[in-house]
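Objective 1b of the project was to move from sequence-level analysis to a structural picture of ligand recognition. The entry below was assembled by the postdoctoral researcher (A.K.) and checked by the PI before modelling. It contains the amino acid sequence of the target and the SMILES of the bound compound, magnesium ion.
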Amino acid sequence: MSAPLLEVRDLHKSYQLKGRPALEILHGIDLQLPAGECRPICGRSGAGKSTLLHILGGLENPDRGEILWKGESTRGWDRSRWAIWRRKAVGFVFQSYHLIPELTVEENIRLPAMLAGVPLEESWEDLLDEVGMTLRRDHLPAELSGGEQQRVAVARALVLEPELILADEPTGNLDGASASAVLDLLVKMVRQRQKSLLLVTHDETVAGRVGTPLRIADGRLAGNRS
Ligand SMILES: Nc1ncnc2c1ncn2[C@@H]1O[C@H](COP(=O)(O)OP(=O)(O)OP(=O)(O)O)[C@@H](O)[C@H]1O
Ligand SMILES: [Mg+2]
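Corresponding predicted holo structure:
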């Protein structure tokens, strides 16, 4: 059997704040994400969901534990190796969209390619179309609704065809109908492209629409394996 796309073994993380006892956030997280799978992770506010995603995205270091990418340990990876991996292999979607305010819709979507110095196939315009923003391609983020901004962020996350999408409360700033539409679009686009998705949320309903949730509580991850 081939190795999972992403595997986490016994991950620990605590924060040491001056003059206070260490705050233990993650205490032995184990996780396997097969290629092509969408997996929601649910947990209350402060449970450590964002911390976990930051560590998995190489944005923060764990205290101990191991992360494997396609069976390869990332233990010896330095910052530049992580940066190369992030650029090629991962797309991020954040709660607050994180679009560049001075860039148009089109420029925001094309930005990862520009930063990576790779030419984009014409097919990036299909992405623009799929997220329903073709007519707004010259607009700035401030001229868009929250749902529209998040659709642009979804297109941007997928533009370099990364194998993994990490989404942190991607519908947390959106209300009812808009949240559902963005979530359905994200999951549909990830599935169609046979990518993998890890989505963290405090909202059980959101998690249930993505797949069988894992739950993070007391620093550990529990849930049914599908
Ligand atoms: N850099 C930091 N220094 C100190 N404590 C931190 C730091 N980052 C996060 N924490 C603490 O770690 C805990 C987990 O934070 P985290 O942001 O991962 O939670 P979360 O599950 O994403 O919550 P939410 O649903 O509110 O986004 C919180 O108690 C938070 O205060
Ligand atoms: Mg969070």
